[in-house]
Amino acid sequence: MNATLVTPGSPWRPVEVHESVDSTNAEILRGDPTPWRVVTAEEQRAGRGRLDRGWTTTPGTSIAASVLLPRPTNAPLGWVPLVVGLALRSALTETSGLPVDLKWPNDLQAPTDGQRKLAGILAELTPHGVVVGTGVNIDTERADLPADTATSLRAAGAPGVSREAVLTAYLRSLATLWGTLQTDPYAVRAAYAAACTTLGREVVVHLPSESVRATATDVDADGRLCLTTKDGVRAVAAGDVVHVR
Fold first, then answer.
1. pLDDT tens, residue by residue, 152-196
2. Backbone dihedral region of 97: left (phi > 0), alpha (psi from -120 to 50 degrees) or beta?
3. Do 180 and 219 lie in a common domain?
4. Among 119, 242, 230, which Cα is nearest to 170's?
5. Which of 181, 183, 198, 194 is nearest to 77 (CA)?
6. What enzyme class is recorded for this protein (predicted)?
């Protein structure tokens, strides 16, 4: 990785590259609180994903990066992780040529490799904005993946994709979508709905106190998943979603 990945004219500050950190989110939180920072590391020793799951990276074959975004001014905070997932999906499809499925809220799955997971995303609210960390398996060999449910672009059928190309495409897409979120949130909502493979499917959503089986029918203005059950419609802001095959 190098520090010259930012497209001229974009809001991003120069990329801060580290050899090894505990987590890129923690590195952002320890430093300058000015929005549009980007921190990446060759090795992340104690990264976390959504629902507090661990996320480690193999040096040289994965991306571990965090960004500090300003708070959205014209959209609920619930849309931040969804927009990040949409931007990362765009970057992965653009650079790899593979189809990438987006499961609510922001799980990126490889349909060419049994819907295994390509990336982890974690958003954390701070007084200065929103820190969003991403871990992406790029050229990781299958034997080096952390779990059977994980995959990489290589394992899914696209070996040799440049990590720099993926990160550059991700930052470009995220900046564009972030701007649209402020000016036309309905356009972002429509784009997300078109990309999200959860909508229209029967799902089981595991919540802290229960599991709900329903049809996922929409994502509302707050970014919540709308579930249609025999008792009516309910919206959930967080949960572990399983697509019923």
1. 999 999 999 999 999 999 999 999 999 999 999 999 999 999 999
2. left
3. no
4. 119
5. 181
6. ligase
Q: In what order do the strands lie in the sheet with 211-219?
A: 232-236, 225-229, 211-219, 202-206, 240-243
Residue of 208, 240, 209, 210 whose CA lies nearest to 225: 240
Structure token digits, residue 239: 């949960």
91 and 183 fall within a common domain: yes
SS3 34: coil
Q: Are residues 114 and 167 in the same domain?
A: yes
In this structure, the answer to whether residues 86 and 59 fall within a common structural domain is yes
Give the predicted TM-score (pTM) of the model.
0.92
Q: Domain with 223 in it: what CATH number?
A: 2.30.30.100
Q: Are residues 28 and 108 in the same domain?
A: yes
Q: Is 213 in the same domain as 101?
A: no
Token pair of 210, please? Answer: 């229960």
Partner residues linked to 135 by β-bridges: 64, 120
* C-alpha to C-alpha distance for 148 and 128, rounded to whole angstroms: 37
Domain membership of residue 140 as a residue range: 16-195
What is the average pLDDT across 135-142? 95
Q: Is the peptide bond before 105 cis (omega within 30 degrees of 0)?
A: yes
Count up the domains in the chain and report the number: 2
Nearest Cα neighbor of 213 from 192, 180, 175, 244 is: 244
Query: Parallel, antiparallel, or unpaired: how do β-strands 38-44 and 16-21 relate?
Result: parallel
